[in-house]
Amino acid sequence: MNITVIYNPAAGGGREALLCRFVAELERLNARVTLYHTTGPNDATRYLQSREDQGDCVVAVGGDGTTNEVLNGIAPGVALGVFATGTANVLAKELALPKKPEAAARVVVQGKSVMITPARLNGRRFIMMCGIGYDAWVVDAVDLGIKERFGKLAYALSMLSQIRRYGEQRYRVAVDGRPLDCFSAIVTNGKHYGGSFVLSREANILRPQVQVLLFQKPGVRFLLRCLTALLFGRMEQMDGVASLRAEQVTISCETGDEPIQADGDPAGRLPADIVVDPEPVPVRVADTFNS
Ligand SMILES: Nc1ncnc2c1ncn2[C@@H]1O[C@H](COP(=O)(O)OP(=O)(O)OP(=O)(O)O)[C@@H](O)[C@H]1O
């Protein structure tokens, strides 16, 4: 098996020792490995697009942002592997991928492929989720220095700093053409969010549809109730939260320069045009993964 390993040395504050163990195990399993260290944002995508032969599998070693950039550069038919060394690693939770480097390498070489349908936000693929409103403000306001040193704490601090703004901005959404309003929205491909929290029980990453969660009531109290419900995996059931399955979603707002987040990183500004990608991607998972 020929494997390209894309390592983001900035993800999760750097995990060089884990990378070495991961690559050593791949080689012990007779894989031929080409290793690449990324140098900055979008370098993974650029590097992959410049490679004529990416091998049988490209493994993203980093967080969801690294996987996103690999996904946007991977050639059709080449399998995507993930060794999660980032901060939140939501995709790894969704696919029940092992944390230990040796076990993660065995999944890549000895596991199976499942077909996952990403979605496209303004033309660029995302694999887990994108969001506008509160969700995007939090990602936009994360202090990268704190994130590098203290990981998820940076998100918690950013969440606190943005709470007061919730409800100020109203967004217009079209879910498969149906017009709706909201004060925040998350378009998710999978069930998990922010790590191991369950955002949507309705979502299914193996299905060629996304789940759209619309937060339709204003007010800080409503947001706090939503965040509490998220801790218990019950946000989708809340009065004021609409959860809809869709193939195409557009989101816009009349005023302001509003950010969007995709797979946990800033992803441009509104308007957002989100469509399910017609080309599914083979992704390596454990043999025991229930598909
Ligand atoms: N050499 C580099 N130096 C700085 N940033 C980089 C480098 N290579 C890639 N990046 C950027 O780092 C960003 C963050 O990486 P990533 O999202 O994978 O890790 P994380 O934020 O720690 O994890 P998670 O998304 O799971 O919370 C990526 O979006 C990528 O653009």
- The radius of gyration over CA amounts to 19 Å
List the helices and strands in order. EHEHEHEHHEEEEHHHEEEEEEHEEEEEE
On the 0-100 scale, what is the average pLDDT? 96
Assign a percent range to the helix content: 25-40%
Give the cofactors and ligands.
adenosine-5'-triphosphate
**CATH topology-level name of the largest domain:** Tumour Suppressor Smad4
Task: Quickly name the level 1 CATH class of the largest domain.
Answer: Mainly Beta
Largest sheet: 6 strands, antiparallel
**Judging from the principal axes of the Cα atoms, what is the shape?**
globular
| Count of discrete domains | 2
Q: Structural class from helices and strands?
A: alpha+beta
Strand order of the largest sheet: 7-6-19-16-9-10
Termini Cα gap: 24 Å
Discrete helix count: 9
Total beta strands: 20
Describe this structure in words.
The chain is α+β, with helices and mostly antiparallel strands and 291 residues long. It has two domains: 2-110, Probable inorganic polyphosphate/atp-NAD kinase, domain 1 (Rossmann fold), CATH 3.40.50.10330; 124-276, Sandwich (Tumour Suppressor Smad4). Helix content is 28%, strand content 32%. It contains nine helices and 20 strands. Strands 7-6-19-16-9-10 form a six-stranded antiparallel beta sheet, with no helix packed on it. A six-stranded antiparallel beta sheet has the order 15-14-11-8-17-18. Helix 2 runs parallel beside helix 3 (64-71) and helix 6 crosses helix 8 (153-162). The longest helix is centred in the first third of the chain and has 13 residues, at 16-28. The radius of gyration is 19 Å and the shape is globular. 45% of the residues are buried. Adenosine-5'-triphosphate (ATP) binds at residues 8-12, 38-41, 43, 62-66, 69, 86-89, 264-265.
